[in-house]
Amino acid sequence: MTGNRRNIQTELVHAGDPTERVEGAVVLPIFQSATYASGDESLYDEIRYLRLNNSPNHRALHRKLAAVAGGQDAVVTSSGMAAITTTLFALLESGDHFLAQDCLYGGTHSFASEDLPKLGIGCDFVSGNRPETWAAQLTASTRVFYVEAMTNPLLEVADLEAVVEFSRHHGLVSVIDNTFASPVNFRPLELGFDVEVHSATKYLNGHADIVAGCVIGTAETVARIVHKLNHLGGTLDPHACFLLNRGLMTLALRVRQQNANGLGLAEFLHAHPSVQQVNYPGLSDHPQHERASRLFDGCSGVLSFELVGGGAAAEKLLRGLELAIVAPSLGGVETLVSRPALTSHAGVPPETRAALGITDGLVRVAVGIEAIEDLRADFDGALAAVSQVL
């Protein structure tokens, strides 16, 4: 612990707790109330009302998330997409333009390429690893640069340091989706990013039982986003706040196990003859391995790989797994597998998917906290069945 800054593992347990425990309760209760008695509020956003994201459960979460990520303030939302869309709506208006990394989560990509242009907001997609090309896409109305810590599902690691430097030089707000890394592995606000967003459904909650999101940054920026969120109504309910707060307490323990499992499974698949390629920044032959090793404390539990035999082989693999569950999402204690072409990027046009490298034979794995030897055995058995028909 340096100075007054506590270790992240301690902050995850204790940060955000009320100064006086409610009736002595060690765990903050669920405040199942839509409205609260008025005080001396002078602004709309200060009115004590559940939709305005200021119940005791909300406030505790906001304090905890800000402390864990190194931000001044935070706000939770009803989903990860609510966090992303509300942030962009708060930072951009009709006539504005922004830059975005070219290989993003499918929902974000579609929102940027289909929905925002209808509202007069333009977007150009850029390669996260070619900083020399970014300036050519700037316009007089460019306001934001949006990237992901690790891209979904190809696990690319953009030149994040260059994104921060470029954004500062050109007066852009730098926004990063840190879902895949989590604050345990990477704290982008410390690197210089302005805004950090998460699908809290994933690692932050970690138990696949709620949908939530969050935004973390300076007090001024978060206030702008909260004001927009209060109008759009993407509020997280108190019980979900309670579950997210509980999930955060074990985040460090879970992610460290998932770091180890992710690397262990990636190494196993990398050596298997039925696998053409493995995408995981923790592998030494990953194109951005050096950068990931320098910036991250671990590469988390998401990896993807290409099978010999394409889509048919990928489908047979999924049907042959017994321990891993075929389902979308990630970050929970159980291992999930999916085909991104049919899940996270199903809404992206096929030609765009192909250009991004998301093939029918691509399989994404989100490892849980099971024993690595059992995960290897599960994939080994399923791959053996695939090999018999190739």
The third-level CATH topology of the largest domain is: Aspartate Aminotransferase, domain 2
The overall average pLDDT, rounded, is: 94
DSSP helical segment count: 14
The 3D shape can be described as globular
Main attributes of the structure:
390 residues; 5-stranded mixed sheet; Aspartate Aminotransferase, domain 2; alpha/beta; 7-stranded mixed sheet; 14 helices; Aspartate Aminotransferase, domain 1; 2 domains
Structure description:
It is globular, with a radius of gyration of 21 Å. A seven-stranded mixed beta sheet has the order 1-7-6-5-4-2-3, with helices on both faces. It has 14 helices and twelve strands. The chain folds into two domains: 8-248, Type I PLP-dependent aspartate aminotransferase-like (Major domain) (Aspartate Aminotransferase, domain 2, 3-Layer(aba) Sandwich); 253-387, Aspartate Aminotransferase, domain 1, CATH 3.90.1150. The longest helix is centred in the last third of the chain and has 20 residues, at 251-270. It is α/β, with parallel strands linked by helices. The model has no long low-confidence stretch (mean pLDDT 94).
Compile the SSE list and pairings.
Layout: H1 8-14, H2 56-69, E1 73-77, H3 80-91, E2 97-101, H4 106-118, E3 122-126, E4 142-148, H5 160-170, E5 173-177, H6 182-185, H7 188-191, E6 195-199, E7 213-217, H8 219-232, H9 238-248, H10 251-270, E8 275-279, H11 289-295, E9 302-307, H12 310-320, E10 325-326, E11 336-338, H13 350-356, E12 362-366, H14 372-387
Parallel strand pairs: 2-3, 2-4, 4-5, 5-6, 10-11
Antiparallel strand pairs: 1-7, 6-7, 8-9, 9-12, 11-12
